[in-house]
Amino acid sequence: MSVVDFPTRGEACSVLQARDASALSGIKQPGVAAAIWQRDLAPEFANWISGLPPEKLPKLRSLVGVDALEGCIQAACDLAGTPAGPERDMLAGDIAALGFLVGEFMETPLLQVRLDVVSTNACRRFHVDNMTARLLCTYRGAGTQLAQPGAEASPLSVSPGSAVLLRGRCWPGKEQTALLHRSPPIEGTGQTRLLAVIDPAFEHKPEGTLH
Known about the structure:
Oligomer: single chain
Helix content: 10-25%
CATH architecture: Sandwich
Shape: globular
Number of strands: 11
Number of helices: 3
């Protein structure tokens, strides 16, 4: 487990990283603004998802119970025409597992889940989300970028497949969250990203931002 310490002003701005799921629980440690479960995409999965036509990537915006999330992802894949097979099952199962962890850490049985297919510079500005917490995982394309205010020119990029749990402005307690994040600018590169966004639903406010 490692911690990336950005310059601090007594705010939560550190990034905790480890190669097991327990890393995500580190979001509750003092001073930690982002917890990253470092993971590598399986080669067969990476080849499969990078080879899909963008129109075959699943899209979703849904309020869903933790136990129903895997079926919800499969339904989104059906609607998009995502080819059935072990790789599609890996995608649905992995998002469901991440949803279970969010539900457990944030103590909620309901989640607001998005699958965003991104090919523009949507959400290119660094920001902090106006909610308690948010989990992001990029399954195709470049990952979310993290930065301390004033250091946006040299962001930390979350690798594809890694899951990052971020504190938002409404995180309980006295610590303010200083760490910023954004969607990587990809317009004009020909890239298409597939991003999973999982929010605890107990206080969700609709947002149109990507990451």
